[in-house]
């Protein structure tokens, strides 16, 4: 037994499933989870001292790599002044200005502590603003674990094979309508069946919780048009894609303006942060300006804000996103060449520094139904072979992968070679 397995046994005694978030338990790939002791740059190190090149990046936040000096310095400086005040601070104001500068659709923004809080509140706000109850989401998209969003959801729910969670009252779930990602007809049909009832559409503009599926041409604009036609609020859940695919996120990359945007991950620089923002008239309905209530003891925490702000400042460097995109393309081209060499049916997807790997002979995977036709068993074997090669991928076939600015071409070459060995043994 290595130290990770020992710790997992010990963890199961007092932590449900031995983990504090389900996908970490490795149920999606079998075996026992790796426990990490430290991380630096593009690498994570387990408690037994093994080094892995990391493509999880703490599920997205680590776009600069682990332990980035600018973030570390900002956090240490903030800690000197106290951990939390529960009162307004200057750094929150700077953060709000920065978010509005990066995201042209965001006129006002409220900081929270997680992506879940951000999406949960954005939906409450959309309901309060429109006076309607129903929300429309897409099968296989994940927006955190608020009750009304755990319906046909992706990520850990797909990994566990329970796309809708027990514990949610049927009359709550009844307000959640689900459509097919990349299928505008399925959205129109729901609007036409109940034209005055749908408060909002919430969508991952690039779906990253059923592997990685970019939107087809016109899909996001089509959602914008349908929301305008039926007077519903369009929410882009950019918790994963926010500052990941471009400085201006999906909304600038695809040139579609949502009414509200939810953020998380990168905006906290590795600390627990989320945010939601958008049109000033909608945000004006939020307490204390308006009646829609939301609050948080640690919201806008000064240490978390300092970390997030330091991260966002790094993203302003000239050529940052081009370089990240180029590295990701290089990695995927290398992987595809290895798959061809070893005659493994595999396809990839990419948007900026975000990517997907699919075991399928399809050229492109565009929908939840197509994701479900991919070979999940092959992924499980592949995952463990990669782990042996010192490559840490997400322990599930339903998660996107992430490249960071800290990944060197030497590390990418090492990854390509390691993946080649894994594919050869598959
Ligand atoms: C697109 C998306 N929305 C919302 C969430 C929820 O964020 P959190 O895990 O910070 O609650 C996640 C990730 O978990 C996500 O990927
Ligand atoms: N897919 C999830 C977030 O993006 C993974 C994080 C988790 O569930 O622990």
Automatic annotation (TrEMBL):
Keyword tags: Cytoplasm, Isomerase, Porphyrin biosynthesis, Pyridoxal phosphate
UniProt gene name: hemL
UniProt cross-references to PROSITE patterns, sorted A to Z: AA_TRANSFER_CLASS_3
Protein name according to UniProt: Glutamate-1-semialdehyde 2,1-aminomutase
Cofactor(s) needed: pyridoxal 5'-phosphate
Catalysed reactions, semicolon-separated: (S)-4-amino-5-oxopentanoate = 5-aminolevulinate
Enzyme nomenclature, EC number: 5.4.3.8
Gene Ontology molecular function: glutamate-1-semialdehyde 2,1-aminomutase activity; pyridoxal phosphate binding; transaminase activity
Single GO cellular component term: cytoplasm
GO biological process, one term: protoporphyrinogen IX biosynthetic process
Similarity comment text for this entry: Belongs to the class-III pyridoxal-phosphate-dependent aminotransferase family. HemL subfamily.
InterPro entries documented for this protein: 4pyrrol_synth_GluAld_NH2Trfase, Aminotrans_3, Aminotrans_3_PPA_site, PyrdxlP-dep_Trfase, PyrdxlP-dep_Trfase_major, PyrdxlP-dep_Trfase_small
Xref: NCBIfam families: hemL, PRK00062.1
